[in-house]
Records
---
Amino acid sequence: MTVAENVTEAAAPQSGVDYVFDPTWDQETERLRTNEALWDAGTIERLERLGVGEGWSALEIGAGSGSVAHWLGERVGATGRVMAVDLETERLGWIERPNVEVARLDLRTDELPAESFDLVHSRMVVQHLEDRPAAVASMVKALRPGGWLFLEDTDSLPLFRSAVSEDFLQDVRAAGYGLMRRSGHEPRGGHFDLQMALESGLEDVTAEGRTVMVRGGSDQARHYMLWLEFMRPRITAEGLLDDARIDEALREMADPAHRWLSQVLISTFGRKPR
């Protein structure tokens, strides 16, 4: 079992999908797309490392706007299949591939097909669930013997670390993530993914962490700006920060002179015994 950290400069997503941002899209769609801009390159690199290829059957849980599901559809080819599931599937309609099935599914209440997939992948899903062990057990059950579970969740402690100052945006992080934790978000979710994988009977369990160096004003920075705007009403209602401080923080995030660390995204891998 190894845990490593890799810090990279944020770049455009390498998913093979050329997105055109439509100004009529809602803010949540933009948040999902900017999240893909942060993390897709590393996720796809790790899927390639696992050997995902022609003929695989893959399940993408929490498919979001569909970039990873689309990549998987290309990767597994005509002889493979991809099932892309989410609570909301409207943003997945653009994926027009006969080997990609889109389905509405709630991991908390719906059963996954047993022993059906060579790969089950989820990113930033498990850490938001109340019964995380049950969710992971359901994913493991959905794997075929020899299939891979690939979980990605975060550790938010390093977020906004920067050369700008020791406390750069730390009041924003503490306010926003404090409220998220009260709503069920686990800020050390990636660590618990590893623990659950080790306890689930999987083999060859490993984990590694990666961060992105975000530049102010980029698509990646926009992701955090959208997050702060979304959290603004709750933060101000609780008296944690006022609107003036939030406006100042948004200007800091938009400034190309500023660079900061993302969360650590911890990738956990494990294979179901044959």
---
Amino acid sequence: MANDKTPVSADPASWSPETQLVHGGVMRSQFGETSEALFLTQGFVYNSAEQAEARFKNEDPGFQYSRFSNPTVSMFEERLRLLEGAEVCRAAATGMAAVTASLLCFLKAGDHIVAARAMFGSCRYIVETLCPRFGISMTLIDGRDIENWQAALRPNTRGFFFETPANPTLDVVDIAAVSALGREHGIITVVDNVFATPMQQRPLAYGADVVVYSATKHIDGQGRCLGGAVLCSEKFLTDHLQDFIRQTGPSLSPFNAWVMLKSLETLPIRVRAQTETAARVADGLAGMTGISRVIYCGRADHPQADIIKKQMTGGGQMIAFEVEGGKEAAFKLQNALKIIKISNNLGDSKSIITHPPTTTHYRIGPEARAELGITDGMLRLSIGLENADDLAADLEAAVKAARTS
């Protein structure tokens, strides 16, 4: 039978994401293993003193020390780089290590950063508390309106930072609009893309300069290991990030990199299945008595559905919803669940629920929570890989229990 298909290119950049996530970045040892090798080593041996000198002068390619780079970690970085379409990727020990490195590597005393106020509590700590300790001023804004970004500009503004969709309110920021404003004023735009995952949103394609991930979430996907990643241009790496990571040491362990490298193989399948289930669950919640509000990026009633349609290819697997009756009802609902587990993690194969006012966003205080719209009845739900009907039944029974008990 004649084959009229275009021959497959040897360049992984031309492959589809599913193929990249199985074969991208592989470096095989002399043993020719099929599964990627795990290099649990601190250091590397040189053939001579001259080679060691050349390595440290960057005149001889190769590895020096696992705090700087490691073969297993490098495979993980290259695979994620291909998926994201970035020039380079550097892994970090946790998602917060990635966020911290992405900002502090280029900001200095006297600089100013503008950030969308709707964000994970630890991210808000970095912007609102840590940066000012080092003389970096900050302004928190409602990031949903581009005019707020424009109004917050100062002559010394050097960075924009935001999550989209944001944790836990699922607020969305127009990546292209903010990035364009940043380029116009020489400002570096850093986007936390953890909720959307690289399967459903590519911030670099919309003009962002830097993308960060907590690989702990969907990239691992099974609640096992901590990790993070920063994706950026060669220039940003050379000018800012490389030395910061090399000297401060927020290094991802080779074991965790190996786990996440294998997890990337199934990322498209997992995200697709979780998104399909999340859409059904969100619709079901919206029709339940006792639920006053459902926020889901895949629903037409999301306040920023137009922006979502422009920059996301799916609704994701995160849902926020409000229970009538405040904290007491929210606690009753959580305690009545049989399948969905109470935990502050997300992106797991297990469905997980948490109460942001008393967990992830407790420390930002009641005034900040009220400003963000995080009510005492709000719950954040991360959809896993369970049967959609089972999850729906679990939630329906729990909502009923919260109303009647």
---
Amino acid sequence: MKVSLFVTCLSEMFYQNVAKDVVEVLERLGCEVDFPRGQVCCGQPAYNSGYRKDAQKAAKQMISSLENSEHIVTPSGSCAAMFKEYSELLKDEPAWKGRAQAVADKTYEFTQFIVNVLKIEDVGAEYPARATYHTSCHMTRLLNEKEAPFKLLKNVKGLELIPLENSYDCCGFGGTFAVKMAPISEQMVDEKVRHIEDTAANVLIAADNGCMMNIKGRIDRKGKPIEVKHIAQILNTRVEGRI
């Protein structure tokens, strides 16, 4: 099965190892992965901030870069969800609307693709740790993917997954929200960190690099001994090291 990786801005700039783990897991599961070089930002920051024309420009570039792909996979639920907005974003441009929908229909978040397309729930990972999982807002509420990460994590050998209280609450990142509403965002991420601490987990797992960056930043500032890992890093690990 041929897969095009949409790496996302945050993976490219801050979490390159996450992108590598995504590729390694997909290849191990039998996928042929390529990387269309024309890809840019999905346009979500501009779209969420009301800059519709800028978001349209980004959307058109992404559509042009990825429309010939068989499947599009990304390590970010929020970016995958943004692709689903392209058809509405370009609704007044008939030449683009259909192309936008075609791209959206073959775009998947990483765990969503493994579980729902590849039909695999056990990737052979082993990660002995006490962990909890943060559910990102865009992935659960806009992409409507709630089960795939848990189906994969329950089959990771040695992983004890502890439920996170108020897991549905936003971590406070929200793209530009964390910049525009910093005091409110700080209160939100502080509450998230308190709930993580209450689980006594030594690892927080997430499926969105934006949430990871925000929560890890706060954990580090508070000096808490909690690791923050993308789910791809967990799925690409065994006791003796990287698979």
---
Amino acid sequence: MSTDYQQAREALGVRLRELRLSAPGGRLTGAQLAERQGWHKSKVSRLENGRQTPTADDLRAWAEATGQPDTYDELLARLRGFESHIRSWRRQLASGHRPVQDTHLTAHADATLFRGWETSMIFGILQTPDYARHIFTRYADLQRTPRDTEDAVRSRMRRQEALYDPAKRFYLLLWEPALHTLVCPPAVLAAQLDRLAGTIGLDTVELGIIPLSASVRIPPATAFWLYDDRQVIVENWHAELWIDDPTSVDTYLRTWATLRQSAVYGADAQNVIARARRAISPR
């Protein structure tokens, strides 16, 4: 996956390798560095090749182990520069929506535990093709980007295969207004709600809905996804934020857990969906 985030992580890895090879006491092998820190020997390789994001403690240990403790501030600044990486829609959508969908397809393939919160539309992973088609079209118009709607829809549908993978679990929260938002024709929304109701009961999915009548402990604000409780993806109008620093991830975990307290499940969730379905008058 070639992204600015990954490129920055790889650049940090190159810098770490430079420090290891230029240690004042003589160049260190990866095995020697790992032994000094009590790490598994593969960790050095993963960090240097940009396959793992280091923690601040990892960087401090690296700087000290290579005899160059004064480089810690530089390394930390590099890390902080991409921990909360902003991926602008203008850049991401330059070639259309499919590349973005393929990026998320890769991220989904690598994770097994998902928590989601959505306020204004149905989760992509639960969308019907017709509903997804209207979403992509509306956003292409807004962002003034190329239309590759059918390719994007196909990529999104492939992502839904994960719902039937017994190794994965999806814990999803929807705010009730998402069931009523007419971002598509009423008939399309009606079919989408039927599809949504059908996901209740899947052994890989726990779908909770927060009714408008529910008492909430915090305002139902920006939508987000949590992957393996290690990374958060937040969508804004201008960009996606890919966040993996532990403090921020913990904030989103607490947010999700707080919202969950107001959700209804099972038959009660089915009733909320059915109420929205009855309110639709296809024409």
